[in-house]
Amino acid sequence: MGGHGMRIFVAGATGAMGVPLVKHLVAAGHHVTGMTRSESKRSLLEGLSATAVVADVFNRERLGAVLREAKPDVVVHLLTALPKLGPVRPADLVATNRLRIEGTKNLVEAAISAGARRLVAESIVLVYGYGDHGSTLLTEEAPVARTSPRPWLQPTIDAGLALEETVLSAARSGRLEGVVLRFGFIYGAGAGSTEGMVAMMKKRRMPLIGEGSGVWSWIHVNDAAEATLAAIERGRSGAVYNIVDDEPVTWRDYLNHAARVLGAPSPFRLPLWLARLASPYAAISLTSRFAVSNARARRELNWRPVYPTYREGLATLSR
């Protein structure tokens, strides 16, 4: 792909990842059109030197019109609808699930009609499934989850898989170069879940569940944006890439380190049985073990995280 001065359309341009991505794209010399659902965010995008369009992905006619007008070479799909401070129960994911299923179909169709040649879409490592994946790093070849330990977890995974299938089937049919990015858990300034965590830690309300032995693979929001830029320029059509940092970490280590960085009290311990009663969703997601490999993204996208571990990434919060 490559080449400077591409026309890039970013759907979900004002989200936690959209804003740094738009900055990176503009800095790399691309012409960016950013889509937002809300008129009030138009000035934010214009302030980043992007062209702003207000449209809803569920309004297919309007979506088609804004894409035809933007004439993009590449479309980036970052649409989510998570609560400001991140999801804490399955109900918080329903709107995003619909975006991933219906919204992706609409966006892919509109991109093809507008003559775009590539679409890069944001998926998530949750598609490997909740639960204990052990300590072997999950590569993109690892099986995805078709069933879940709790039936109410599956709709979120199914929505991610539907997004991936829509993008990859467009790639297989040759109608579009489709690239899927399976992001780890995004953190950093501007990410709602990080702001929620910081606020809770300062009040000593962020619990460590059980032994805190759940393992997550994180990605700093700026590294997520850099990886998306690399996928726009160098991603292989039909490929899936895990976008995570170099070191999966236990919740115990992550939260204790965050407390030191923030000068916050150490997190309190919540027994697992109590967590399961209080928040079954948090209990399962925070005790799952997702140790994910970024080897393919490093190799094929020639991408390296600037914040290789949570320690470098969390250090940015104290500034």
TrEMBL record:
It comes from the Bacteria. Residues 8-243 form the NAD-dependent epimerase/dehydratase domain. InterPro entries: Epimerase_deHydtase, NAD(P)-bd_dom_sf, NAD(P)-dependent_oxidoreduct. PANTHER family: NAD(P)-BINDING DOMAIN-CONTAINING PROTEIN-RELATED, PROTEIN YEEZ. This is NAD-dependent epimerase/dehydratase family protein. It comes from Archangium minus.
